[in-house]
């Protein structure tokens, strides 16, 4: 083949290649998916949807918080009711033990003595007095406390006037048929270490009754046996 013929063939080949390339490029432009460009309306719809979802999340979060709080309040209320029921059952057992038909007959006594700290030296006491020996009879008299302990290595007993910080302090009056609670305050001197507390009952008609409790027993935590409202039961 001559040199001129070869040039013609090469030229025709280049034209064919260019035609093929342009053909493929045109086909890609026709059939390729166009880039998705959101319109202004679509953007606004998306923003509105986001706001709706955020509001829903906030609402659900608040509802969950309210539900948790309500559940906590319910649990606390149930706990309080359980404590109240337990206390009422203890009160019923106490009443039956002293005023029931099968109750053991006992004379005037200090059924329980409890002390709770108010300050480093001041103490609040609750004394539960009982009797069911003379049913229907009213017991009247006075209660006094005394505390034994040590101060600076020496034994010392604090009588009622010193505990009340009143030189002429009289005992606390009681009057009841079956049981009564008396409450008051006593004050211990500085550096005094109590060991034992004694409750003294002096009835208007009858013999004196003394009952002692260790300080650990009197200050042990625990609910009182009978409610204060029962004081002076008649």
What can you see in these coordinates?
By secondary structure, the protein is of the alpha+beta class. The protein has a domain at 109-230: Immunoglobulin-like (Sandwich), CATH 2.60.40. The chain has helices at residues 3-31, 40-99, 160-164, 215-219; strands at 109-117, 122-130, 139-151, 154-158, 172-176, 179-187, 193-203, 209-214. Strands 3, 4, 5, 7 and 8 form a 5-stranded antiparallel sheet that branches. It has a 3-stranded antiparallel sheet with strand order 1-2-6. The longest helix has 60 residues, at 40-99. It starts with a helix and ends in a 15-residue tail after the last helix.
Rounded mean pLDDT is 80
- Tally of separate helices: 4
Shape: elongated
The amount of helix comes to: 40-55%
Radius of gyration: 46 Å
Extended strand count: 8
This entry's quaternary arrangement is single chain
The level-1 CATH class of the domain at 109-230:
Mainly Beta
Tell me the strand percentage band: 25-35%
CATH structural fold name of the domain at 109-230: Immunoglobulin-like
Global structural class: alpha+beta
Terminal-residue CA separation: 143 Å
Q: Would you identify the CATH architecture of the domain at 109-230? A: Sandwich
List SSEs in N-to-C order. HHEEEEHEEEEH
Poorly predicted ranges: 224-234
Largest sheet, if any?
Answer: 5 strands, antiparallel
């Amino acid at each position: 083949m001559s040199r001129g013929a070869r040039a013609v063939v090469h030229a025709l080949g280049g034209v064919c290649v260019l035609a093929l390339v342009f053909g493929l490029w045109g086909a890609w432009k026709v059939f390729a998916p166009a880039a998705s460009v959101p319109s202004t309306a679509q953007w606004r719809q998306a923003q509105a949807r986001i706001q709706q979802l955020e509001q829903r999340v906030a609402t659900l979060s608040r509802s969950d918080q309210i539900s948790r709080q309500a559940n906590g309040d319910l649990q606390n209320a149930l706990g309080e009711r359980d404590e109240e029921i337990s206390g009422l059952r203890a009160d019923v057992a106490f009443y039956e033990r002293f005023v029931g038909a099968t109750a053991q007959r006992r004379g005037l006594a200090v059924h329980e003595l409890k002390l709770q700290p108010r300050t480093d030296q001041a103490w609040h006491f609750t004394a539960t007095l009982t009797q069911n020996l003379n049913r229907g009879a009213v017991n009247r008299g006075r209660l006094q406390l005394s505390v034994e302990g040590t101060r600076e290595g020496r034994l010392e007993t604090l009588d009622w006037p010193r505990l009340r910080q009143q030189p002429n302090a009289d005992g606390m009056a009681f009057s009841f048929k079956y049981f009564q609670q008396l409450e008051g305050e006593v004050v211990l001197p500085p550096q005094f270490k109590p060991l034992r507390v004694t409750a003294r009952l002096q009835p208007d008609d009858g013999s004196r009754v003394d009952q002692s409790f260790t300080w650990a027993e009197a200050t042990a935590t625990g609910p009182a046996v009978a409610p204060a409202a029962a004081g002076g039961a008649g």
